[in-house]
């Protein structure tokens, strides 16, 4: 992409501050890699919350992917910032290792010999250059927050850092053996990132234990918002405001509501119809699904199946109704993060 093309691309990305636009114009291939990698972290976010009232849904009508949700300093927003920051690191490190970018490649520090619990080994292969990816991510992603330095900016910076640290946390040493008859007398090893799912699982756990905070008297850091809360560590996610319940559609809070969402009638968890539908009730429809059946193994290397039609019941949450209002209000007073507190007798 030429200079003019990169300038046009960068000028048409909404929400960038001047520092980000400057970096975008200087590194158009990096920005293209980040854009392509967005699908991966959004997909991971939606996987982690697929059975919850807030399911990391996106909207194409707003200037950002999550609309007005990002205006609120909630724990869901904390997760979005952490997973997106992690996604940028993961995408860039992978692009460097695959040779897709001109300004980076494999980690140049992994040279010579080293040792681990199994003995000595030689560095070889292509180690993912995570430090380079973290450095660029910190400069680019944090640029907007460093202009403000208010409570919300401090929250975003903290969660951005937690996301970056999560990718580095799951770096693993992978080795290949050399020697007579695979004796492994010589090992060649390299550092590789784990599958992004491990980062997503880790940040999901951090979301569950996120700490509500307030800015300290100096405006430089956080204290726990309540005396019985622990002080957040650098690995914790932090948030400033309570979450909406996400039961009904509310454009002001960024809630899409749960009307029309699939739920499980048998479950008593967050995916159960009682919790997901917030007491509004649910509709049942019998639908036909195509499944693989009568599978047979054929020598030597093939499994052949028939396509069978199966009738199953699907349950979807209803819209708000007057008759459901009392039950819905009762359920809305219960945290959607703790469905075990809801009585179903």
């Amino acid at each position: 992409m030429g200079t003019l093309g990169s300038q046009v691309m960068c000028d048409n990305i909404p929400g960038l501050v001047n520092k980000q636009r400057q970096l975008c114009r200087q590194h158009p291939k990096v920005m293209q890699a980040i854009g392509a990698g967005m699908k991966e972290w959004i997909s991971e976010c939606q996987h982690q919350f697929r059975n919850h009232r807030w399911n990391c849904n996106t909207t194409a009508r707003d200037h950002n992917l999550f609309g007005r949700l990002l205006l609120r300093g909630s724990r869901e927003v904390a997760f979005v910032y952490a997973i997106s920051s992690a996604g940028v690191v993961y995408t860039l490190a992978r692009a460097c290792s695959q040779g897709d970018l001109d300004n980076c490649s494999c980690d140049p520090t992994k040279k010579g010999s080293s040792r681990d619990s199994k003995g000595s080994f030689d560095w070889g292969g292509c180690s993912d250059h995570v430090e380079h990816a973290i450095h660029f991510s910190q400069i680019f992603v944090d640029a907007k927050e460093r202009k403000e330095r208010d409570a919300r900016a401090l929250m975003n910076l903290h969660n951005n850092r937690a996301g970056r640290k999560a990718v580095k946390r799951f770096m693993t040493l992978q080795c290949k053996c050399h020697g007579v008859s695979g004796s492994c007398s010589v090992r060649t090893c390299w550092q590789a990132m784990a599958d992004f799912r491990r980062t997503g699982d880790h940040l999901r756990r951090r979301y569950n234990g996120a700490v509500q905070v307030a800015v300290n008297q100096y405006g430089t850091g956080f204290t726990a918002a309540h005396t019985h809360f622990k002080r957040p560590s650098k690995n914790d996610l932090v948030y400033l405001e309570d979450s909406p319940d996400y039961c009904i559609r509310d454009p002001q809070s960024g809630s899409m509501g749960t009307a029309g969402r699939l739920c499980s009638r048998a479950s008593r968890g967050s995916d159960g119809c009682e919790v997901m539908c917030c007491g509004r009730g649910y509709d049942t429809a019998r639908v036909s699904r195509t499944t693989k059946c009568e599978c047979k193994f054929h020598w030597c290397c093939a499994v052949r199946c028939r396509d069978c039609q199966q009738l199953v019941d699907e349950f979807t949450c209803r819209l708000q109704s007057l008759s459901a209002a009392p039950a819905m209000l009762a359920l809305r007073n219960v945290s959607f993060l703790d469905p075990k507190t809801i009585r179903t007798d």
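Confidence is low (pLDDT under 50) at residues 322-345. The chain has two domains: 3-48+73-239, 252-341.
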